[in-house]
Amino acid sequence: MLLRISYAFMPLVAMALIASCKKAPIETPPVETILTGRVADKSTNNPISGSIVFTEPASSSVTTDANGNYTISDIVTGQYVVSATKNGYKESSTSVSVKEGQTTSADFQLEQLTPALALSASTLDFGIAQASLSFTISNSTQYGTLQWSLVKNADWLSVNPTFGTVSTGTNTVTLTANRVGLAYGNYSTTLAVV
Questions:
Q1: Does residue 86 fall inside a structural domain?
Q2: What one-character DSSP code corresponds to residue 48?
Q3: Are 106 and 82 in contact (CB under 8 A)?
Q4: Which of 33, 89, 145, 154 sees the fewest Cβ atoms within 10 Å?
């Protein structure tokens, strides 16, 4: 009797195994790994559209939308330096760790470039015979227009020009030492460029 029971269950077990093999495999949903963020002006917090956002090591480069937002989809997991840049702004970078199946955020506050004064020389020496010397004034960022003026406090020195503006080039300033009426000795003065 025991043998009959075991034979009776055998066809059922075989049918159950065959039936389970016929089921379709379960598909796993795709894993999305995303890097996203916003680029804004540091002083106003207004969005900066048209900014370029890129990664190092290189994976992708995208442009921000009208609201300053960007998204890099399907980024490979790992460590990245993410940078944002736009003409007229200083580039900004940050390090991020991108993990599989997660959304990583990297926001940027870009600082506008402003004119910056640069002089070709900080000291001029006329020696005993030199009558004229020159130096140049430039805008080192080449963004915007730099307005400058020179303030002198020595009657024996003439300056030409004493004011000007510069955007992308240079302005040459000529200093002339007038030794007439000066006693023998060393003379020095400081020019203020403001």
A1: yes
A2: -
A3: yes
A4: 145
